[in-house]
Amino acid sequence: MNNRKKCNKKRLTLLLLAAAMIGLISGCGKQADQEQETVSEAIKIPMVLTVDPSTGNKNEEKLVEAFNKTYEGIYKVEVEWAMETEEEYRQNLKRLNVADQLPTVMTDLRMLPSFYQMMIQDGRLEDLAPYIAADPQWQEMIEPVVLEGCSEADGSVYLAPLSTAAFSCSGVFWNEELFAQAGITTFPETWEDFWACCEKLQESNITPLALHTEGTAWAPMLFATAELASTREGASFMKETYPASYNNENGIHMAETLQKLFSYTTENALHTDYDVAYDNFFSGRAAMIPNGYWMMDQIPAEWAAKVHFAPFPGNVLISSPETFGWSLKAGCSPEVKEGAIAFLKFRTQLNQEEKQQLFDESAEGKSQAEQDYLVAYEANPQIVPNYQVKWNSILQEETLGDYLPELATGEISPEQFVQYEDESIEEFQREQ
Fold first, then answer.
1. Does residue 33 sit within a domain?
2. Which of these ranges, 21-30, 160-169, 262-271, 418-427, has the smallest mean pLDDT?
3. Which of 306, 337, 360 is the last residue of a domain?
4. Bridge partners of 47?
5. Tens of pLDDT, residues 125-153
6. CA-CA to 308 of 20 to 30 Å: which in 11, 19, 178, 217?
7. For 100, what's the count of Cα atoms within 13 Å in the CB-facing half-sphere?
């Protein structure tokens, strides 16, 4: 009897222990599930960003990290980093669109005018105007000229704008040491002086310009379009969207300028992209390279004291703030859309803070090029639109790469070059 009681007690004890263990395991399971739910709570916002081939830097990494930290556990921008040029990224966007695999947030769309318009017509982009209008804080962050540039004629907004145009201007970065070796102390203020400067540098065995022909021929086209805008007729031409012809005085003049520019550049400028031009400048093989404010972060530390920034001759800066607008893919889930809009607003706010910091900081906290940029930006420059938002995509993506090298080497004349440009217009119109 006693043995039976002991046995029963032992069984009871074992049963209680087993129940406790089951409860503990169950509790651990529930806790693990809860932890898993907590981990997966953040709503993911897919995006593709590039790694700069010239520097190895992840573009917009600071912005992504700041947003993800601020909205930790709520939203997370999930980036696929692509080691490719900006031109390659833009071409990939077209392929992703065909495959219906577009990321939620897209950059650079306004650099592809026809593709951008097609995306709007096909309903592939979200109209952000209602969200900006419903958010006074967001609206107040945006300079009117920037919002206007990002808006369509009917008031819709498919390009989430930055706060300011202060970071969107392009001019010329120049090497003070190489200029000094040629006896030049300041950047030329007129185009006549610019060509004389190129001659003087070349006579001193210094290559004046870092250029390239691939992509959209960014560097030489900046020089050529800035020079074209030095006349009233040329400035008006630069404001035209999809010009009907380049076979005119302005088009031929620009082609002549392009040909002349390539007589002052490196031997490896043909059939190469901007990363080669960048390397030629920051290895000391060329004295000047055109680019925008965004290159400030790409100046190697050891070059910070000797690289200057200047407007193009004639006090010209090239700027189209709409090219910095980012787009939101239409058809996202409400949660993802909400997160993406929060991210786009966060970018506007961060840009506003960066402007305040840039203009409020003392000169001691800035590189030489940044100091020069502020002087140029506040000196009432002539603002010329970026050709990449004005001209057809075939000209930019095919014609320039195919025929600019031939123009540069004299295999074709400026008149023949503009004929090819006009053929791009005809092909573009057939495709529409």
1. no
2. 21-30
3. 360
4. 79, 105
5. 999 999 999 999 999 999 998 999 899 99
6. 217
7. 4
Write the DSSP symbol of residue 310. E
Report how far residue 294's alpha carbon sits from residue 278's, in angstroms, rounded to the nearest whole number. Answer: 13
Backbone angles phi, psi at 280, to 5 degrees: -65, -35
Each residue's pLDDT tens digit, 257-280: 999 999 999 999 999 999 999 999
Integer Cα distance of 335 and 339 in angstroms:
6
Q: Which of helix, strand or coil describes residue 1?
A: coil
What pLDDT is attached to residue 374?
A: 93
Structure tokens at 63: 């912005």
pLDDT per residue over 374-386, tens digit each?
999 999 999 999 9
Q: Count up the domains in the chain and report the number.
A: 2
Q: Could you tell me the two tokens for 12? A: 């009871």
Q: Are strands 316-319 and 288-292 parallel, antiparallel or unpaired?
A: unpaired
Q: Is the distance from CB of 403 to CB of 340 less than 8 angstroms?
A: no
Residue 332: both structure tokens together: 């996202």
CATH number, domain of 353, equals 3.40.190.10
Please give the structure tokens belonging to residue 371. 């100091």
Torsion of CA 88, 103, 100, 394, to 10 degrees: -30
Residues 176-194 have a mean pLDDT of 98
The domain boundary, picked from 300, 332, 360, lies at 360
CA atoms within 13 A on the CB side of 288: 29
Check whether 20 has a pLDDT greater than 60: no
User: Which stretch of 66-75, 254-263, 387-396 has the lowest confidence by average pLDDT?
Assistant: 387-396
Q: By residue range, what is the domain housing residue 242? A: 169-319+371-431
In 3D space, the residue among 313, 283, 291, 274 whose CA is nearest the CA of residue 369 turns out to be 291
CA atoms within 13 A on the CB side of 227: 26
